[in-house]
Amino acid sequence: MGRAVSRTRPPRWILLRGLTRECRHWGDFPERLADSLGTRVRCIDLPGNGIYHGQNCPPSITAMLAQVRKRADLNAPVQLLGLSMGGMVAAQWAAHYPREVAGLVLVNSSSALSPPWQRLRPAALPLLLLTLLTPRAQREALIYRLTCARRSDAHTTLPKWIRYANECPVAHANVVRQLAAASRYRMTAMPPGLVPLILCGRGDRLVDPRCSHALAQHWHTQVREHPWAGHDLPHDDPDWLLDELADYVNTQKKSAFRR
Question: What is the CATH T-level fold of the domain 12-258, as seen in this structure?
């Protein structure tokens, strides 16, 4: 069930990114989220990524979660926002440690509920494999093309991503471990009282939006679909995402008031 945490403080948000990405890839979204909701926001790098790039990534989502929870420094239940593989870690957290989680939002995530060709679009596979064979600058350009539908900021965003890759390079072995862990992951039931929010981008070139619809159907919850955003929805339309998160929090407050 997880450790007992105080419920007297308002929930803060913990943000989790996905395959090979780190906290800095959120850009200014965490600060904007904190300002929008008047709360605290913390990003945690997954094992093998970002500040933990020198560590070996564990072979399962459950083992990744164990390391993330150690770094979370919980003193109250948290709201979890997980993008892609980060959504798998967040869902595992909510399912197995419900007393630690006040809310759950998944963006462009997937699970074994969907077939492999939806979890990773066939057209994306050659590009993904190519990222393992190219220098970092070209690799980040490929990832940008694959995950971002709004590309008007390439001249400012790509140099930052290349710098992150040079400063905190993700080992190829860790990429393979993360892919293997994600491919094996099976979503479990949500605890009573927790209603997840599922978000996806219709323009996602990496993961088919039908994966998000499968999750929503499995958990009997709603899915909200952005009309054009790609896999990196926080990059493509942060304003839309902020509005969705604000609506989610307001719905939680209304539900709590009715109890």
Answer: Rossmann fold (3.40.50)
